[in-house]
Amino acid sequence: MVVLANQVSNESIRVGGITRFWARGAFLAVFAVLALVLSGCGGDSFDIKGTWKSVGESGWGQAQPGAIVQFGDGQANLYSPADRYAFYKDGDDYRLDVTGLIGGNFSFVVKVVDKNKIELYQGSGGEPVVVLTRVS
């Protein structure tokens, strides 16, 4: 009878230990995913597609102050009425490469201020060439 009591007791401890182990593991997994989401890691979380308004003090191409700029399906009207563009993440930076309707290849570093405001830079540092706020 004593042997049966020890076996039941050991099985309960073992099952309880496994349950605690999995609960602890599940908590850590949820915590890790939450940390990745909040830190912005875990994938490209910014999409440039949509309608933007040029709000900076200066402009570039057609993106003069007050102008509406649209990005969608690889086409934009940043420099000319029918530009082709590529928007991508390069290390820690976002990049925007633009080819104008009648030629000209241009490259920008895009600083995402927030999901509704971006700044476009050419070269290193300095002031943004274009500042855009999202309309839709």
Structural overview:
It is a single chain. The chain has an 8-stranded antiparallel β-barrel. The chain is α+β, with helices and mostly antiparallel strands. The chain has one helix spanning 2-39; strands spanning 50-54, 68-72, 75-76, 83-90, 93-99, 105-114, 117-121, 130-134. The chain starts with a helix and ends with a strand. The relative contact order is 0.13. It has 2 domains: 1-43; 50-134, no CATH class.
Percent range for β-strand residues: 25-35%
Assign a percent range to the helix content: 25-40%
Query: Could you tell me how far the N terminus lies from the C terminus, measured between alpha carbons in angstroms?
Result: 75 Å
H/E series? HEEEEEEEE
Q: How many domains make up the coordinates?
A: 2
Shape category: globular
Coarse structural class:
alpha+beta
Summarize the structure.
The protein is of the alpha+beta class and 136 residues long.
